[in-house]
Amino acid sequence: MLDSGSEVTLVNPSLVSSLGLCGRPDRLVLSTVSNGNELQKGERVNLAVESLIDEQPQLLQLKEGGSGKELNILLRHQRIAVDKERWPHLHDVLFPEVERQKISLIIGANFPEVFVPLEVPSWKSKRPHRNPFFSLLYCPR
Predict the structure, then answer these.
(1) pLDDT for 126-138, tens place per residue?
(2) What is the SS3 assignment for 46?
(3) Between the CA of residue 64 and those of 67, 114, 125, 131, 141, what are the distances in Å?
(4) Which domain holds residue 30?
(5) Over 50: is that where the pLDDT of 139 sits?
(6) Which residues contact residue 124 at a Cβ distance below 8 angstroms, ignoring those fewer than 6 apart?
């Protein structure tokens, strides 16, 4: 998930484990609207990601992603994929099937290159933005 409101990149510990990643221990301070500042024991991990649907995907190196508590954010794109005929501006956007049924990675503003649009449609066209690393729907806050 791309989150321009997040200052850091977070990696679900279960993803770290399933990928066999080894990080360096660190204390993570997470500030949220609901919890204020929360100190977590965790680790910093490095990983690389790429798009599942782009014809020529670019590899994105994510360095020092924080991994602490489980990210309990359910994946809800299946419903969008089923109902996307209701939103004509999404008709060209692919929603690939994925194994994990929850968000495992939040890419924050510390990787600004993912937020640079490849296509910037006019507001009248109501087409989604595309960025260089992922063909995702990205709506600025």
Answers:
(1) 555 555 555 444 4
(2) strand
(3) 9, 16, 38, 22, 25
(4) 10-115
(5) no
(6) none
Q: Report how far residue 138's alpha carbon sits from residue 141's, in angstroms, rounded to the nearest whole number.
A: 9
Q: For the whole model, what pTM was predicted?
A: 0.73
Tally of domains in the chain: 1
104 belongs to a structural domain: yes
Point out which residues pair with 11 in neighbouring strands: 105
d(CA 51, CA 93): 13
Residue 67: is its pLDDT beyond 90? yes
What pLDDT shows up at residue 5?
Answer: 87
Distance from C-alpha of 135 to C-alpha of 82, rounded to nearest angstrom:
18
Domain-located, residue 79: yes
Q: How far is it, in rounded angstroms, from Cα 60 to Cα 49?
A: 5
- Say what percent of the chain tops pLDDT 70: 75
